[in-house]
Amino acid sequence: MPGRDAEACAEMIDRALSGIAVAARRQAAAEPSPGGPENWLVLNAAYLLNSDRAGEFAAVARALAGTHTGIRADLTGPWPPYSFADLS
Description:
Layout: H1 3-20, E1 23-27, E2 44-48, H2 54-66
């Protein structure tokens, strides 16, 4: 999947997942490696979920990734919600 298409796909997936989450934090995407974009991490984000929506979230993430050739979704967690703490 070419760079702009992958970034557009990541935007669409992030919008959909953010709609399920209580809060979301997205990191900037890294540039594709010089050897090729096969393992390009185009969407690196954390989503804070209510536990009753975790199954829905995972199903939507996998379904959206499955509709685009060359996209793989890796879901991990649950993780401590420190990414969402306001430390200012």
